[in-house]
């Protein structure tokens, strides 16, 4: 089985060695560098990654991901998409091979998105960025996801017990590009509950309280918005936006009513 890790990068030299150490269980690592000026591309090459340097204009995460996927050799069996601020715990390849079958096209695995100050896990969920070489493409300008575009039915996603990926982000990295890309994503697909939730959260970060409340209420009203963790987060963000506006009584009343529904 040929397993290839692929990623995009820009100005992430501080992550390169840790990330490459984590990815050594793969047969090959390919990276699309989109214009690093800090030596990221050179360090990745020195560590054995196959690096292509190319600008993506206009910038969209899905276009960058799709371009990086194109760099994966055609004879790869499994494609593993990660970011440079993510780290696999050792043994991931063995666990992945154990879960993969000839009928498998996509794999889910445990993902720790955040950690508490004491090092314990914070937000944890199952991610689905490991997939077969053909039949998939990335969609959405930001918070991009894999979409099955191959022939026939993709079939069920296979859970890979024992595969654990940890996220250790750089808190100083700018989020300036997220808001316009999220607005574009919702404009392109107004019924996508996931990005509507993310857009509302982004408005909260910017202190745009009314936009936050309006957007997250739209999210909660969508019939497909059924993930309870995400719904609860939208309710908390709405309550926080009301509170920041100074409407504390209304915030508490609305939150209690929404939580009871």
What string gives the helices and strands in order? EHEHEHEEHEEEEEHHHHH
- Going by helix content, strand content and strand pairing, the class is alpha/beta
Low-confidence stretches: none
Distance between the termini: 48 Å
What percent strand? 15-25%
Biggest sheet statistics: 8 strands, mixed
Question: What percent of the residues sit in helical stretches (DSSP H or I)?
Answer: 25-40%
Question: Mean pLDDT across all residues, rounded?
Answer: 93
Count, helices: 9
Strand order of the largest sheet: 3-2-1-4-7-6-10-5
Gyration radius over CA: 20 Å
How many strands? Answer: 10
Structure write-up:
With about 260 residues, the chain is an alpha/beta fold. Helix content is about 40%, strand content about 20%. It contains 9 helices and 10 strands. The strands form 2 sheets. Strands 3-2-1-4-7-6-10-5 form an 8-stranded mixed beta sheet, sandwiched between helices. It has a two-stranded antiparallel sheet with strand order 8-9. The chain starts with a strand and ends with a helix.
Keywords:
globular; alpha/beta; two-stranded antiparallel ribbon; 261 residues; 22% strand; 8-stranded mixed β-sheet; 39% helix; 9 helices; single chain
